[in-house]
Amino acid sequence: MTEKSKKVLLSGIKSTGRPHVANYFGAMKQYVDLQNDYDSRIFIADLHSLTTVQNKNELSQNTLDLAIDYLAIGLDPEKVTIYKQSDLPEVTELAWIFNCITTVPYLMRAHAFKDAEAKSKEVNVGLFDYPILMAADILIHNSDIVPVGKDQKQHIEIARDTAEKFNRIFSTEIFKLPEPYILPSVETIPGVDGLKMSKSNNNHIPLFSTDDEIKKLVMSIVTDSNGGVPVNVYNIHKLFRDEEYLAKLYKEHEGKYKALKEALIEDIIAFISPLRARREEIAKDPESVRLMLKNNAKKLKVEVDEMMNKVREAVGL
After folding, report:
1. Section 135-150 average pLDDT
2. What number is the average pLDDT over the span 49-74?
3. 40 within 8 A of 80, measured Cβ to Cβ
4. For residue 30, is pLDDT > 90?
5. Half-sphere exposure (CA, 13 Å, Cβ side) for 101?
6. Alpha carbon of residue 180 to chain centroid
7. In this prediction, what percent of the chain has a pLDDT beyond 90?
8. Cα separation values, 212 from 40, 203, 206, 227, 258, Å
9. Can you spell out the DSSP letters for 168-231?
10. Is residue 293 scored above 90 in pLDDT?
11. Spatial CA neighbour of 43 closest among 98, 90, 93, 88
12. What is the pLDDT of residues 306-316, one digit of tens each?
């Protein structure tokens, strides 16, 4: 199958810090698993990151680190186009055009906005408008599928609504309607406290943790029980081992929470160690990673320009 005949897979992660285990199993692993089957385009969402990261050096370093992380988990740069969101400024032009056909009440239904408002935070315009920039990211590539966690499905729904509305208003068929790609087995991944794993909850296990960090984090897992099984330990453990193996292990060590945590530590270290070693090797040559990002954006710019020319003509610009 040629690259042109493959469907387009599009996804990205904000460069707001280092990825954790839930980022990997919830999304990043899917990129690796699907890289032979799709024309995969994975972007580092540095523009989205500006809603919270407003320090030049921090944002720049986070962006480079995330590109290295992508390569370290096994994304093949010959098969996957990894690029920096801000290297395609046409995305923000498209987002503005989408803004002009989107109402404020519609965006007020977005989960991120409602969550921030519920916490009595002053919401910046970037966060409020986040879903429209995301729609532009997705639609400018005529994406077919977008791997997301269950809690991110609304972003794809907004992108679909925006594509449909644009096509209807301007009597065109420029944009196709993308589909979410969700793996049911990893819809929600728990952290060390049993709640959804996230940096904001401070309950995450970093993807490239040191052995000592892994030991400390696993030993801190809240050990609620259900029939002698520490549920929170098990729910993390099943990411790294199959259920048949775990059924035997947890039966043998029923009620022995320390032993089960130690088994989990061993399995997480066995999983993370080779990723960490590969990352350290790639990080020795940061300039080649930066060059890869620039060259990939240049490669995509041909298609993006073609799409934007159609959009400009459709709206009368």
Report:
1. 91
2. 95
3. yes
4. no
5. 19
6. 13
7. 74
8. 35, 16, 12, 30, 16
9. HHTT-------EEE--GGGSS-B-TTSSBP-TTTT---BTT--HHHHHHHHHTS---EETTEEH
10. yes
11. 88
12. 999 999 999 99
Q: What is the pLDDT of residues 65-91, one digit of tens each?
A: 999 999 999 999 999 999 999 999 999
Tokens of 302: 């041909």
| Per-residue pLDDT, 3 | 56
Q: Please tell me the distance from the alpha carbon of residue 90 to that of residue 147, in angstroms, as a whole number.
A: 23
Looking at domain 8-187+286-315, its CATH superfamily turns out to be HUPs (3.40.50.620)
Give the residues across from 180 on adjacent strands. 146
| 8 A C-beta contact, residue 94 and residue 305 | no
Placement of tokens 């945590």 in the chain = 261
Compute the average pLDDT of residues 205-218: 96
Strand 229-230 versus strand 8-14 pairing type? unpaired
Check if the beta carbon of residue 156 is closer than 8 Å to that of residue 164.
no
Residues of the chain within CATH 3.40.50.620 domain(s) are: 8-187+286-315
Q: Which two tokens stand for residue 192?
A: 């060390």
Q: What does the pLDDT read at residue 119? A: 81
Neighbour-count burial of 258, counting CB atoms closer than 10 A to its CB (0-12 exposed, 13-18 middle, 19+ buried): exposed
* CA nearest neighbour of 49 among 156, 144, 124: 124
Q: Which two three-digit tokens encode residue 126?
A: 């970037």
Beta strands in the chain (DSSP E): 8-14, 39-45, 80-84, 145-147, 179-181, 225-226, 229-230
- Structural contact between residues 131 and 114, judged by C-beta atoms closer than 8 angstroms: no
CA nearest neighbour of 74 among 244, 275, 240: 275
Which residues does 87 contact at the CB level (< 8 Å), separation at least 6? Answer: 293, 294, 297
Q: What is the mean pLDDT of the chain?
A: 92
66-86 as b/e: b if 16+ CB within 10 A: bbbbbbbbbbeeeebbbbbbb
